[in-house]
Amino acid sequence: MRFVHVADFHLGKPFGNFDEDTRAALKAARLDALQATGALAVSRNAEFVVIAGDTFDAEAPPSRLVKRALDAMAAFPDLTWIWMPGNHDSLAAVDLWERLERDKPANVILATSADVIDIGPNVAILPAPPSVRASGYDLTEWMGTADTGTRIRIGLAHGGVTDFGSEDGGLATIPPDRAETSNLDYLALGDWHGQMRITSRTWYAGGPEADGFKGHAPAGALVVEIDKHGEAPCVEQVPLGKYTWHRIEVEFFSGIDPVTILEEALPKTGRDFALVRFIGTGRLGLSDLAALRKACEKLEDEFHFFEANLVKVGIEQNVDDLNLIAEAGALRVAAESIFEATSIEGRTEEDARIAQIALSHLFFLAQETAT
User: What is the pLDDT of residues 237-251, one digit of tens each?
Assistant: First the structure.
């Protein structure tokens, strides 16, 4: 028996920290991931898909988005989807779940109560749907007493594992050994946005599309195989994400070409679908820092999103650099004053960043004037 385990699509996530084009692309990719999940399941001859919560990012998603999600599942009529609420789209969203019950295609089963769902004669799904955003107690406890005979037992839950925590910092209430103590063959979890193995029978699917610079495992789905009740599952991690997120931090030193170091640290392929948050530390001379800043500006068009934070790159005092701006006079006094303001000691990072940019601009203007 083979099935696909996914969670945390977060359809409609606003991505408010990005520009309009990037927000639109990331939101579209999350809906595309639903289609990709269906295609994966069909290609692997999976019998069904379980969604372990947070299909939507909010309790009142746009009506059009709800329809598109239902249409994406209906596009695979021979595939069964078992769809459970999460904490973002809990059962407290009464209007949402009433509409889903009314409009869902025939191949979608809503896991909205703590009752056994029979999938054919050999499989039982045991869901623990959240009734509110943070229940504060273990919703999976009932699984231990559920009578399913000799059928394969698959638990479905959303929340934090005890001593592990949840994506939103909520109460961690699911025991890490729930699968073992409740005789589950597999416990499909949602809430944590990176794929993670808790035990051989308990996994977080993570989000099919990454949504932050947190360094999670590649976004995707889990393909799970179980031969019969009592045997250990075989779990395969399958990447699905269209966009890759990279948080890259590099320490710079004088005497080494910073532009070369920058290029070596960045992904070489897939740049059109890469989001990069680059953080520089260390110290550089003014001319090297100016070259690094200029290189970062040029890279903005090579990636889907590129953000460079160089505020922690201190400016190494070098009389020759300041001499390239001016050796004396009011311009030299201004350069020295701005240079002192580039230190983060005694001021905010934003003020130091502004001073660094100002000094770099002054350096460029001086060089342009000289030529």
Answer: 999 999 999 999 999
Dig out the tokens for 3 from the structure: 């099935």
Q: Which two tokens stand for residue 235?
A: 């779990």
CATH of the domain spanning 2-239, picked from 3.40.190.10, 3.40.50.2300, 1.10.3720.10, 3.60.21.10: 3.60.21.10
**67-103 confidence digits (pLDDT tens):** 999 999 999 999 999 999 999 999 999 999 999 999 9
Q: Which two tokens stand for residue 68?
A: 């598109």
Strands 220-225 and 234-239: antiparallel
Half-sphere exposure of 99 (CA within 13 A, CB side): 16
Q: Which pair of tokens denotes residue 29?
A: 């990719």
DSSP 249-287: EEEE-TTS-HHHHHHHHS-SS-GGGEEEEEEEEEEE-HH
The ranges of the chain annotated as CATH 3.60.21.10 are: 2-239
* Per-residue burial over 286-297, b = 16 or more CB atoms within 10 Å of its CB, e = otherwise: bebbbbbbeebe
CB 100 within 8 A of CB 66: yes
Global pTM value: 0.85
